Amino acid sequence: MALTGRRLEVDRIATLAVLPRESAMVVVGDPGSGRSSVLDAVADRVSLPVVRVGVNGSESRWPLAGVTSLFTALDDPRATAHIAHLLQGNGSAATERTTPAQTAGLAAAHDFLDAVHALTLPPTLVLIDDLDRMDAESQELIAFLASRLAGTALRVVASVRTVPSDGPLAALPVLRIEPLPADEALVLARAMAPEDANEGVLAILAEETGGNPGALREQLSVLSREQLGGSEPLVLPLRPTPTTEAIAALALGSAAGRDLDVLARLALVPVAKTAGWDRDELDDLADAGLTSVKGQTVTVRDPLVRSVLYWRMPARDRRAAHTALATASAESDPRAAAWHRSFVDEVPDVVALLGAARSYVVDGNAQAAVVLTERALHIGGGTEDEHVALLGVAEALLANRLLGFAARYLAAIRPFRAMADETRRLRLEYSVQYLSGDVVHADELLVPVDPADASEADAVGGLLAMVASFRAEAWELDHARDLLARAEPLRASASPHTVEITTAAEELIAAVDGTLPPDAELHDGLSTSTLLRMSDPALLLLAHALSIAERYRSARRVFALVLARGPETMPVWTEAARYLSAENEVRSGNFRQALRAIDVWEAGSSVVERLREPSRAIAIAWRHFAEGRTPEALEVLDRCLAQRSTNRLWGATAKLYALRGRVLLLDGRLDEAVVSLEAADAIGRSLRNPAVLRHLGDLVEVYSRLGRVDDARAVAARLAADHHARPSRWGALVLARCLALIADDTTRETARRRALELFQPHDSQFERARTFAALAAVGSPSERPRLGAAAAAAYEAAGLRRPLAAPVATVAMPSSGSASSLRSGPVLSVPAPGTPRSAPDPSAVLTSLTAEERAVVQKVTEGYRNREIASSLFMSQRTVELRLTQIYRKVGARSRSHLVALLT
Questions:
Q1: With 60 as the cut, is the pLDDT of residue 206 above it?
Q2: Average pLDDT score over residue span 58-76
Q3: What angle separates helix 670-683 from helix 696-705, to the nearest 10 degrees?
Q4: Quick one: CA dihedral 847, 851, 857, 859, positive or negative?
Q5: Measured between alpha carbons, how far is residue 424 from residues 118, 198, 410, 466, 714 in Å?
Q6: How far is 376 from 630, CA to CA, in rounded Å?
Q7: Measured distance CA(760)–CA(732) in Å, rounded
Q8: CA-based torsion, 587, 593, 594, 600: positive or negative
Q9: What is the pLDDT of residue 80?
Q10: CA distance 782 to 527
Q11: Nearest to 30 by CA among 241, 156, 155, 176
Q12: Rounded to 5 degrees, what angle do the CA atoms 325, 331, 335 make?
């Protein structure tokens, strides 16, 4: 299994290993944090010889047992003599009564250091796992060695649980392995769990195990299949496992007496108001890092510590404490009181408990809401009132874009007898299905509706319009139109909001079909006063329609209206606006703005990252690609595609394949690219608007470059027919490029000239670069340098943050390969605009740099920013800037992109 969430830690250790100077580092992490896995990943990654030193805890009582293990692992015949010498010296010191302990220890340390110097090893990485479990003498000697490594050729990395401030390791650089963030913990949970595990359950486990991989693995092994599948509720807090106990023992080592009693009572409730507690005691616990105080609420900081404290208390004492706390919090904290009463009342008030849970979601505390909801499922009787209250919790979770939790609790709700409640349930179910990337069948809407019943007609009409927009987004236009036709008789009884959503759905269908009316005919010419009166979902549908219709400025303006509403907009709509706004910038070819929009979307998202969502996977993969990380982009796409099945939206699957094909095409991997593009074409064949999926131009290009001219001409003919039926600016530009690629000798010059002259200043710089590069790939040797340089300039103008490869005989595309991964073969160098024609050989450039400068250059070619380079190479950002200045002067580079071009 690939290591999840530890890329930065592995990068930092691997960088230490390749630096020209000897160095040492201490890796600190809690039990179960994955210290050993990080060292394993480093051992697999570096090219240096690696020596692994394991620690046997039972040998910790034997002096110098750890040093003996180190010399044995070095596997040098000369080490045996040094081991015997050290052991003899240690025995002599132990029996010599007149020698001070400090003097003997210093002599042993110097003997040890001299012994390591005498081995004359090649540059070697030494990885010591659990150094703190070694005997004390070995810890001191290895710490002494680690601070005096010059001349030993060793890079020493040791992992420990803690580093005491007065211990021998305190002076060494420390890398702290923090708990995994919730998104990475969820990715890890998916990888560990059975295939049929419930997404919401995995999200709960990721939160309740505090991002600790070891604790997560243990919980997955002890939960029942029914609990993992979501058919049975979880008992929270989770019962302690060995890793949980070990972490709690470290955390609670300094707590005792009164503080521990207060902490144990706090552990009985997910979150409490500070009003009912002694503030001085809470401050003491917060200063010790055991609790978290936010505003007027307090909670135990680590869920694993809370688990141990909760289950350590006997059941009788817990019930008595719940009784006392229920009474004490009845006035000051009614939500906590509802939780406590659920443990002491003969007939618990499940509806009140679920009401408290919903209130927590509204306040932004989803973790507390989940704990209360799981408790309600555990003690509830499944009544209609309870299901209505549970529906309210699920709706609030969806509004906060917590799809996994919403889907989990939605599955526990039976269909309602009352039409109003059933309509709410269906709206929630369809929304969760769509946002999760699943097909929305909406078979329940086939039942007849009485138009005379205004409330029923309005509810069903709104559902029909909502599902129609989902079908339009999936390119199932006939189904979408059918749904709107069924909603038309209900329109007379519909509310203004339902009419608004229906109109927006009609506009989205028209946009996907390529027939959206001009802006002047939409909502009073898209006047601001009219738009401000529209609801968030209606504005989003309209903006998305404008983006599909290539009216990027208008779409940008409408998205801004949604985002400007601030807190009054539900998080689910804010999330959608941020993503669709980023997609709008990508479609427009404004890559700089697109990258900023994706960064804002990711930074402002409070939800767990779910790479199963195609929208998020596409955005993240596109950002990786634009910043020069093609392997990471393909990894994200492949992971998402591997989880797609027949119940998933085919349109989203086609987008994934189309992006994958484009990434491979621009990376020069034509045989792989054609497979993905043909898959996208097979799925999206029924879509008649070529500007939506945008894969046909790529397919023509890859066919022509593979020599499949007949296939290229057949696809170009389809593109021409679809474009003439549904004309667009993108279609005109790409069609001209395709015609230039497939032109015969008599029309080639005219077609190429038209493909270039068609571009206007406001057109996409990315498409302009694609045209220059494609023509360079098939152009004559005399034209290729000029067209390749123009392509490089256009790529840079578009904001593509990736090194550009010079065109060879068949390709002129951007490449994410670093200097160490360049393809072999004849390469015709193409200078950036203004660059001398004879670019220096990359190997000659690299040999002129110092080892430290080469390490900086390597990070630059991999797309790292200065701040990231500084962090990974243990430099200040100012030092990185100085090194880059020196590098530019040595190699004659004028900019970062020029440096990359010289080296690629």
A1: yes
A2: 80
A3: 140
A4: positive
A5: 77, 23, 11, 13, 49
A6: 46
A7: 12
A8: negative
A9: 65
A10: 53
A11: 176
A12: 70
CA distance 472 to 492: 23
Closest CA to 537 of 495, 569, 490: 569
Is pLDDT of 788 > 90?
Answer: no
Tokens encoding 832: 């950036």
For residue 604, is pLDDT > 70? no
Q: Specify the residue for token string 């200065």.
A: 866
**Region 184-199 average pLDDT:** 90
Model pLDDT for residues 619-653, shown as the tens digit of each residue: 889 988 888 888 889 988 998 888 765 456 678 88
- φ, ψ of residue 796 to 5 degrees: the values are -65, -40
Q: What is the rounded CA–CA span in Å between residue 55 and residue 52?
A: 10
CB 636 within 8 A of CB 618: no
**Token digits of residue 350:** 């499940």
Q: Which residues contact 448 (CB under 8 A, 6 or more apart)?
A: none
How many residues does the structure list for the chain?
904
Mean pLDDT across the chain: 85
β-pair type (23-29, 174-177): parallel
Single out the residue of 725, 740, 726 nearest to residue 771, CA to CA: 740
Q: Determine the Cα–Cα distance for residues 581 and 30; give it in Å rounded to an integer.
A: 41
CA dihedral over 407, 409, 411, 414, signed as positive or negative: negative
Three-state secondary-structure class, residue 730 = helix
Q: Kindly give, in sequence order, each residue whose CB lies less than 8 Å from that of residue 278, ignoring residues fewer than 6 positions away.
A: 262
- Asked if the model's pLDDT at residue 98 lies above 70, the reply is no
What is the 3-class SS of 128-162, one letter each residue?
Answer: ECCHHHCCHHHHHHHHHHHCCCCCCCEEEEEEECC
Alpha carbons within 13 angstroms on the beta-carbon side of residue 432 total 25
What pLDDT, in 10s, does the model give residues 544-568? 999 999 999 999 999 999 999 888 8
**Which amino acid, one-letter code, is at 67?**
V
Q: For residue 631, is the peptide bond before it cis, meaning its omega torsion is within 30 degrees of 0?
A: no
Whole-number Å distance between alpha carbons of 586 and 697: 17
Strands 297-300 and 291-294: antiparallel
Is a pLDDT exceeding 80 seen at residue 895? no
Q: Which two tokens stand for residue 332?
A: 């000051």
d(CA 215, CA 204): 13
Q: What phi-psi label fits residue 437: left (phi over 0), alpha (psi between -120 and 50 degrees) or beta?
A: left
For 176, the 3-state DSSP assignment is strand
Among the residues of 1-64, which ranges form H helices?
7-18, 35-45
Which pLDDT belongs to residue 853? Answer: 79
